Here is the input.
Amino acid sequence: MDSESVSKFPVGKLAILLAVLQDHEWRRTVERGLIAEGYRFTIGRVGAMDMMKVIAAIETAAKNNRIIDSESYREVHAVYHAIIEALQGVGRGEVQFGNILRTVGLTFSIVRGKFSGGPVEHEGDWIAVAIYGTIGAPKKGFEHETIGFGFNHI
Amino acid sequence: MDSESVSKFPVGKLAILLAVLQDHEWRRTVERGLIAEGYRFTIGRVGAMDMMKVIAAIETAAKNNRIIDSESYREVHAVYHAIIEALQGVGRGEVQFGNILRTVGLTFSIVRGKFSGGPVEHEGDWIAVAIYGTIGAPKKGFEHETIGFGFNHI
Amino acid sequence: MDSESVSKFPVGKLAILLAVLQDHEWRRTVERGLIAEGYRFTIGRVGAMDMMKVIAAIETAAKNNRIIDSESYREVHAVYHAIIEALQGVGRGEVQFGNILRTVGLTFSIVRGKFSGGPVEHEGDWIAVAIYGTIGAPKKGFEHETIGFGFNHI
Amino acid sequence: MDSESVSKFPVGKLAILLAVLQDHEWRRTVERGLIAEGYRFTIGRVGAMDMMKVIAAIETAAKNNRIIDSESYREVHAVYHAIIEALQGVGRGEVQFGNILRTVGLTFSIVRGKFSGGPVEHEGDWIAVAIYGTIGAPKKGFEHETIGFGFNHI
Amino acid sequence: MDSESVSKFPVGKLAILLAVLQDHEWRRTVERGLIAEGYRFTIGRVGAMDMMKVIAAIETAAKNNRIIDSESYREVHAVYHAIIEALQGVGRGEVQFGNILRTVGLTFSIVRGKFSGGPVEHEGDWIAVAIYGTIGAPKKGFEHETIGFGFNHI
Amino acid sequence: MDSESVSKFPVGKLAILLAVLQDHEWRRTVERGLIAEGYRFTIGRVGAMDMMKVIAAIETAAKNNRIIDSESYREVHAVYHAIIEALQGVGRGEVQFGNILRTVGLTFSIVRGKFSGGPVEHEGDWIAVAIYGTIGAPKKGFEHETIGFGFNHI
Here is the structure.
């Protein structure tokens, strides 16, 4: 399938699909759509009981893959708040993992670029962070799926 | 594309795709996968500033479409908590909409059926609620995407 | 049973039992214990979907039954924070009822007096607010028990 | 006193009394009532600054005393959420202990069995977790009482 | 006093002083400092039990006084999140006023301009929202002071 | 400038100015005002990623500077809750620092004394805790200002 059908998706939907589809073949279509529309993006994985490690992994991926300029506090500030928002969805009510005896195995996507609200295109770049994976007890199989999404102007 | 490639997806991923894909053709594949694997599911839409209306719309859809037995408190209790979890992702930190001057336009999916964690299939039914849409100011276009997901045994 | 066995209970335990026991005969023993030890206390009931009404009912009971001096902001401030703490237990994570489609039927107790921590008696008066009852859907029987407890110096 | 007067108590009230009464003679009456009505239950104690240890102690007690089947994720999931709900009452607003310089000394009860809402008996088993004890500064006597209660279908 | 001594203050300190000083003569010094350094700013007042009115009053002041461009979602998004952050300080734990029987009388400041972190000046504009006033019971004098501060890139 | 103009400020405003003004000359005026009106107060600094250290530093300053009696649980309880309230403003939504990869550099003030609400002077002593400083990434300059304020009867 060509990427046209997805390239009209809003940026958040593309970020969510990127994180959720993982190795499914549709992901290629989503990636082609992102490239066609000029977005910068990356995907990564992190597993931890330690919230700090999860945040650091996503921030580092954003910097190392040039989604954001690591020397710009403006951009670091924008992506940090998008990550925290996404983790509020992942944690549902408590932004804590190991402290409350939960461990996570997560795939995350970071997408940066234009953003259209309804018929209008909003000026400047925006950043979307989607996080999908499992959360649960530190015992194989005793975990279930979770998702979170954060969005910010950058 | 046939539905085989998605029918091995875990239940949460199917619920998320159902809510996110909306009218895209991939949704048919997801629906065929859900049917092939014996899941019960429904999709609905709700727009409101009032959190109470959003919860009621999702609960009513679950009952009217026979995803849950409306006479069983056990099932109503399970779906209520899954909805609240999903709304914690949608609201990111505050489970409030109109009170803090936000309005939402949401598509939700409810999926009920078996659940496998890793290689094991867990006994009994489980319920997934995915909510995708926009949240923002009560002004056209001044809103951005959001997602939430709740999951429970039923 | 004479009240001696309970009169050595700490003030919070007495407040909890007062709210939980409702019409059971043990409540008389608890009340005699409270009187013997010189506590001021009251019990009340409130049913509502509206958090504001629940807070007002408890505050009013504290004032009308002379547990606190309604002209002293110091005392009103102390009891307000004890009520909010108790409602955090009742609501478990969200201090909201009707907004998230829940209704409550609550029995509350307010106890004021001395307070011993371990072997030491702490100076001055303290106030305990215990709230016990049901929380759930606005449908008869579709609700379950809940409890909350707040404590403050006064 | 015979146990008849308490055996009609709802399951949550029994769980709360079990945790609160500790070594008082009324506890025997409550236990006889629980046994007469066919509930499975256990009581335990845990003292810690570390939230993770408190959760682990309660989960382990539920498994070791056969209140839940430790091989069933369904049951582990149910009890985990009941524990977190109870800890929201204990912590009142913050599900944190040591991180915010608080330590706890807690008695907990776990009760599993039937559940009646009003005149109706709801199908299947339900689980109640009650936690009672002290919370405060890490200094003897500089602490006060607290309670929390969580409830779930299982 | 001339404004030089304050014009080196960081933007947040200036915003906080603007809201806190109200009619004190030091406020003129702060305003001259803000003008000398090229900041855009405004001050307003709002009293309400309704959180929605407080947010709307601050947003409207930002728009009407040209602190932000009301046609730019980017700028509206930035100021909205700064307001919510400031209200988290005002409400301390609950972003609710009337729902939990509290009323507020607030003075707010909004300051937009450059921002230096340590020795470096960060690129672009930033926005600070400071809110100072009273919170309490809906009874004259039964209230105490509160402050909140939000900050964002714009 | 003589201190008369500020000595009529309410206690919270004085505490906020004390923490915010740091080494600016206005601080002397504020301190003279506090002394003239008979308040007890202290100022301190703490930098940490660890919330526990921040709380301990403020509590210890209150005790060592005789703002509170360290042997009175009543007073320790009052100041603890004022600190937590202030930290809710500092953290805006999450009472966590290092866990979510944030570090803080804070100046705090603690003021104890009389308190007037409107035209009335409320009986007894009250305590105000103001915390001002920076919060951000553990990288020099990648941080911004924050403030929090807690208030309690003592």
The longest helix of chain B spans residues 73-91. Chain B touches chain A at residues 1, 5-6, 9-13, 16-17, 20, 24-26, 85, 88-90, 92-93, 115, 117-120, 122, 126, 128, 130, 132, 134, 136, 140-151 (CB under 8 Å). Strands of chain B lie at 40-48, 103-117, 120-136, 143-153.
